[in-house]
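Suppose a colleague, Dr. K., hands you the sequence of a protein chain of 258 amino acids and asks what its three-dimensional shape might be. Before reaching for any lab equipment, you can write down a predicted structure in token form. Begin with the sequence itself:
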Amino acid sequence: MVTQFTELTDSQWEVMKVVLNCKRKRKHDLRAISNAMLFVARTGLQWRNLPKEYPKWTIVYYYFRRWTRDGTIDMLNLYLGQMERYLSDKEADPSLVCVDSQSIKSVPFVSQHRGLDPFKKVNGRKRHVVVDTLGLVIGVVVRAANSSDAVEGCTVLERCRRRWTRLRKVLVDGAYQGRFLRWVEQHTEAVVEHASRPETVQGFVPIRWRWVVERTFAWFNFFRRLDKDREKTVESSESWILLANCSVILNRLENWPN
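The predicted structure, expressed as tokens, is then:
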């Protein structure tokens, strides 16, 4: 894991611009705008404190909101994830995924989609993610912290369902029961497998494949924008998680074969 922000190299930008519309002439450089977004994701600074070497913060924010709404960030995450899987000798779409959630505190001015997770005693929001066996985020849904894992687990899988042709197994913990099990049975050909720590064992126990989603949550710690939920909308929260995932993949670019 790269712990310090570095601007996009030429090879990284060549990969990114396949998804971004870079063919027509623009007043503002999309590479500089992309660098600014990744800088904010890594450092967590306020938009208005964006350093002067980047485009004006209002321009960067405009593109961030636009790419969030038109699905560009989601498409970029999908493209990079499929490329990483291909270069890891895996099929583009996974046959096994893990679904889990992470409750995170929200800053005081966040009021929309906010709640209290009674089990983890967190006042804020909950990130529902689906990852593959490499730990790459395939889909994410952000809701209030009191949202049901079983209900929102269906939502996050629904967002990704049409991309999958090989899905055969979904790994979850004990919170995913009832509605979630019925949804997977009705809408996919996959089976649900509950993988949890044995009740007789204390502390952390790595469970085959399930540990990768916990590692993904640990990756989020390297992105200051994700240490708390600072976004007024859940759509922005989801985009920052996808951008962090894109950054993780791009930082592996130097290890990709030519």
